[in-house]
Each structure stands twice: as structure tokens, then as C-alpha cells.
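Lab notes, practical 5.
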Amino acid sequence: MSSVPVMKKYKDICIKVVASFFFLGYSPIASGTVGTLGGVLIVYYLRDYPLSYTIFTFSLIMLGMYVSNEAEHIYREKDSHKIVIDEVIGYLVAMMWLPHYSVIIMIIGFFVNRVFDILKPYPIRKLEQLPGGVGVVMDDVLAGVYTNIVLRIIMLLTVV
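Output from the prediction step:
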């Protein structure tokens, strides 16, 4: 009896858990939106620890590219709706290094980020076309950057 098939099965399960962000990606409706909620929880708990937030976010970007690439092979589908680690990453980038956090800013950030991720204004759609996990993650990173800029403008113009 060989342990190779057992190890591959274990690796595939780990990839699915991380890529789907603890199975949020298995939501039957709006899996990307549900997956983004995982990012909201992380921001909520790490927002007062900027160094930890930054390290976690950049580590998750690297991990996300790897597991997204592997998950595409497992699911046999380009950017499967089950892969939502990229939505988590996009939201983390959207909220990164803001001058302050409030529930209102987090909610606005959630919706603005979803709009950018869904509409994919230039050049977000181009990044999505990059191969493998890089394309899966980097379009969400740029959607997060766009969201971050919008949130900063909102914060400058209002008292949110």
C-alpha cells in the first residue's frame, strides 16, 4: 500500500480548504460575496495591529496565488467560483493602511470592492487573464487598490 495517493488526497483537501476559505466558496449563491465576508472578519480582528495586518496580507497573497493555481487543477476549471481566497485578499488590500476604521467604512469598502471585482474596470480584467493563480489573485488585489483609493477620497470629503 502506497502513501502517495493518501498524501495527494490530504494535500488536495488542504488546498480546497484554503482556496475556498474554509468552504465559504461552496456557498450556492454569491460565493464571491460570501467569501469576502471572511476578509471582513480578518480586518475586524487585525485592524489595530498594522504590522501583523501587513504581514498577514502579503503572506496571504503569496499563499493565495499558490493555492488558487493548485485549486484550478483540482476543480478542473479556470478561476472556479469555489476559489474565494482572492476575494478575501482583495478586501484586505481594500482596507489596508487606512487612517482609521469604522463599521461604516468597512461596509462601504465591502460594497465598493465587490463592485470593482464584478465590473473589473481597466486594467483589472487584463490582470485576470494572467496565467494560473497569479491571474486569480492579482485582479482582486488591483480591485482592492482601487477600493482603497475610493475609501481615502470618501474619508477626505466626509466625516465617516
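Observations recorded by the TA: Residues 4-157 form one domain. The radius of gyration is 16 Å.
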